[in-house]
Amino acid sequence: MRSAIVGAVLLAVGGVLIATGVLPLEDAAAVGERVWPILLFVVAITIVSELCAEAGVFAAIAHRAAEWGRGRTLVLWLLVVVIAVVTTVFLSLDTTAVLLTPVVVVLARHVGVPPLPFALTTVWLANTASLLLPVSNLTNLLAQHRLGGPSPIEFAALMALPALVAILVPGAVIAVLHRRMLVSRYHPDEPSVAVDPVLFRSSIVVLALLLPALVSGVDVWIPAVVAAIVLVVFFAVRRREVLRFSLVPWQLVVFAAGLFLVVDAANSLGLVRLVDAVAGSGEGFVDLLRLAGTSAAGANAINNLPAYLALEGVASSPHRMAALLIGVNAGSLITPWASLATMLWHSRLVGLGVEVSWWRYAALGAVVAPLTVVGAVAVLTLAP
């Protein structure tokens, strides 16, 4: 609700800026034209993810992972890493934070291991693995538009090495921190997931068709909307009570819409010149690291979305845009407000009775974020 309130205030401020001429109506219309497909995709993919969770897809995956782990906690954790990466890459970081977090917590408790290392894996990878594809993060969709609409494959070619580093570094830190737990063993029970077989199978089919469609080069909002409509129809027939307004991430939409207007107005008033002096220029390692570091600091100070919008104007080439994304995505691991995914993750943990020390979270993030950003920028210089 807080994000919705902030978004409503930002929309009101944006309305005042338009009315007073600070933000010309033509510029505001251009902002709307740019962001409506992105926000529509966010709405559609959230509905798809929520309905798949209701159908038992994620719970079934978690139970199957417990079986595949064969009693070895390390193998089970590695399977969680894979699931978190795949979910983030194709269904966005917010999906991982909202839907996968309770699954891995229940899974950890089910096999008798502490849930926090699994939950920490989820939130770190939700942020860092979101570098790979445009659909993985709202900032990536904005960057794709800014770069002139490269295909998902072209986008992934630029971000593949940084994304790999951004997955390996947090994973390695967790493996070292929790090495004693990871060498333990557990005794898996038989999975017992009560699901509607029609909804379960239809959700699996929809996901199987949706994932390749998201990297096919078609505007991502189109397959996402189609998938959402198909699942809504199935649920309307089988479990109508699940179809509630809360499936729509309206708070995020309001927050993002207001933010776009206000930051665009700030850019027209000279914000770009200010951040240009801080973020510098050039495409050498030091130059890219300067931009990534600036964007990471901005993300942890305010939030990764406004940090991206403020610095977008100085990302004048594909490599500089990649460095910006490294900072706002992989670098947002220190403060709890650095990304919406982290805030959603925390709210899920509170509901599950898992305590998180923000001081410890920030201390760990202050180690992992710089290592991840530096490593990702270093390999970025190897990209063509």
UniProtKB/TrEMBL annotation:
InterPro entries: Arsenical_pump_ArsB, Cit_transptr-like_dom
Keyword Heme in annotation: no
Localization in the cell: Cell membrane
Transmembrane intervals: 38-62, 74-93, 155-177, 198-215, 221-238, 250-271, 291-311, 323-346, 358-383
Membrane topology: Multi-pass membrane protein
Domain Citrate transporter-like: 8-311
Keyword annotations: Arsenical resistance, Cell membrane, Membrane, Transmembrane, Transmembrane helix, Transport
Family: Belongs to the ArsB family. Belongs to the CitM (TC 2.A.11) transporter family.
Annotated protein name in UniProt: ArsB/NhaD family transporter
